[in-house]
């Protein structure tokens, strides 16, 4: 079975060599070791036997064993599992002779630490007072537990709606992706990779946009792979998660932000959206910022249209079409934003309904009050629909023209 040793907890034991072992066959022995490790099931252990090393008291065992799944959180005052290494002298006919034992409590080792290598003196078994033993073993041990430490979890759990499993997954990926000097996520690209590796990127996309939630998985994956969309989404989320405006994301900023994005109520989601649209991080949205945010609608529409065509490449090829055949229609649609200045119209209406004190800046509270008021939103949407009528009538004519051109091109190709 494949195990991801970066993201999965494990105990590693490497029995490297022995020295001054007990001679059982005259002046020498045929030693081998039996390594017994705890597992994630307190009622089970994992046992591995090394090969026999003939006629030596200084064997090079080089025996390496991993036990997966046990975490620091499983250890309690009543349960402190032990690592046990027994040395035996091999005999072809007689019973194999005990040569010594090393017992090491797992609680001695700090999770996340690097391998600890030391010499351990062999001793007797607890219930065998007459055991003969001698020498020592060079043993390397690592207790790797990437799960979130209990003190870290305790510090945030009262504020969390996220399930512990998701918190733990995010913690593991954060440890993997963070800058080793600052201990923080330093770029939008790293944030996107972290969310993707955590397996929650699509879930976050769904929560962020109701329109995204309606898309199928194939379209989701196309959006995620598109470099321009990844850059836009990464920058947007990074900006709204970076609460102290440091240009980096701490663990606390990441987990609190993800808690709001994935489990937050409508008000919390509105606050996250506002922070992503507060482009200069001033705490308020200016009219210019509202226009720039509205202009992104055209950019995202073009991006989505292009990705839709990309997904239909095979069918388009069968019909004798290419992506460039739709440039005219796409330009007619996205050109509306310039022809009718739709971004300014949208920004004007946002300010009409949000900027209650008319000071030229929309605050976070003003934005949230509007977005969580269905009556006010319905009024705004009705005004948008009315103001869009001339643009949509123009679009209808332009699409008809471009469609006629496309049909003409197809007929021309068919006649060649």
Task: Please summarize what this structure is.
By secondary structure, the protein is an alpha+beta fold. It has 16 helices and ten strands.
Description:
- It is elongated and about 105 Å long.
- The mean pLDDT is 87.
- It has 16 helices and 10 strands.
- With 416 residues, the chain is an alpha+beta fold.
- Helix 2 crosses helix 3 and helix 7 (227-241) packs across helix 9 (266-277).
- The chain starts with 9 loop residues before the first strand and ends with a helix.
- 24% of the residues are buried.
- It has a 4-stranded antiparallel beta sheet with strand order 4-1-8-7, with no helix packed on it. The protein has a 4-stranded antiparallel beta sheet with strand order 3-2-5-6, with no helix packed on it.
- Strand 5 (82-89) and strand 6 form a beta hairpin.
- The protein folds into 2 domains: 10-144, C2 domain (Immunoglobulin-like, Sandwich), CATH 2.60.40; 150-415, EF-hand (Recoverin, domain 1, Orthogonal Bundle).
Beta-strand percent range: 15-25%
The major pleated sheet works out as: 4 strands, antiparallel
Global mean pLDDT: 87
Query: CATH-wise, what's the superfamily of the largest domain?
Result: EF-hand
Number of helices: 16
Low-confidence stretches: none
The total strand number stands at: 10
Question: Termini, distance in Å?
Answer: 59 Å
N-to-C SSE string, H for helix and E for strand? EEEEEEEEHHHHHHHHHEHHHHHEHH
The CATH architecture name of the largest domain reads Orthogonal Bundle
Given helix and strand content, the structural type is alpha+beta
Q: Within the CATH hierarchy, at the fold level, what is the topology of the largest domain?
A: Recoverin, domain 1
Helix content: 40-55%
Radius of gyration: 33 Å
Q: Domains counted in the coordinates: how many?
A: 2
CATH class of the largest domain: Mainly Alpha
**Strand order, largest beta sheet:** 4-1-8-7
């Amino acid at each position: 079975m494949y195990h991801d040793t970066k993201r999965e907890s494990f105990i590693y034991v490497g029995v490297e060599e022995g020295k001054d072992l007990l001679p059982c066959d005259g002046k020498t022995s045929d030693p081998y070791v039996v390594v017994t490790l705890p597992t994630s099931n307190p009622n089970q252990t994992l046992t591995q036997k090394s090969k026999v090393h003939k006629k030596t008291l200084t064997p090079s065992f080089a025996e390496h064993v991993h036990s997966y799944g046990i975490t620091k959180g499983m250890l309690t005052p009543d349960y402190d599992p032990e690592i046990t290494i027994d040395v035996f002298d091999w005999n072809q006919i007689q019973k194999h002779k005990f040569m010594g034992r090393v017992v090491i409590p797992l609680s001695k080792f700090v999770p996340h630490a690097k391998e600890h290598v030391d010499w351990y003196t062999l001793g007797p078994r607890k219930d065998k007072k007459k055991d003969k033993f001698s020498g020592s073993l060079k043993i390397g041990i690592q207790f790797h537990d990437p799960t979130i430490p209990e003190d870290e979890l305790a510090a945030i759990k009262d504020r969390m709606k996220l399930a512990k499993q998701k918190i733990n997954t995010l913690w593991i990926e954060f440890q993997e992706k963070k800058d080793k000097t600052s201990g923080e996520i330093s770029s939008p690209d790293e944030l996107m990779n972290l969310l993707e590796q955590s397996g929650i990127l699509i879930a976050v996309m769904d929560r962020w946009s109701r329109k995204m939630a309606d898309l199928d998985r194939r379209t989701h994956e196309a959006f995620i792979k598109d470099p321009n969309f990844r850059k836009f989404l990464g920058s947007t989320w990074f900006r709204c998660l970076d609460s102290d405006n440091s240009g980096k994301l701490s663990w606390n900023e990441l987990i609190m932000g993800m808690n709001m994005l994935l489990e937050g109520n409508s008000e919390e989601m509105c606050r996250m959206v506002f922070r992503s649209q507060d482009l200069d991080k001033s705490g308020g949205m200016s009219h210019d910022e509202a226009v720039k945010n509205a202009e992104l609608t055209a950019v995202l529409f073009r991006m989505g249209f292009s990705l839709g065509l990309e997904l239909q490449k095979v069918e388009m090829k069968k019909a004798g079409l290419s992506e460039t055949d739709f440039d005219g229609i796409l330009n007619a649609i996205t050109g509306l934003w310039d022809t009718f200045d739709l971004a300014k119209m949208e920004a004007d209406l946002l300010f009409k309904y949000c900027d209650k004190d008319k000071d030229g800046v929309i605050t976070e509270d003003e934005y949230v009050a509007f977005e969580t008021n269905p009556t006010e939103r319905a009024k705004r949407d009705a005004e948008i629909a009315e103001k869009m009528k001339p643009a949509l009538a123009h679009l209808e004519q332009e699409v008809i023209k471009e469609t006629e051109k496309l049909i003409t091109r197809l007929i021309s190709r068919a006649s060649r």
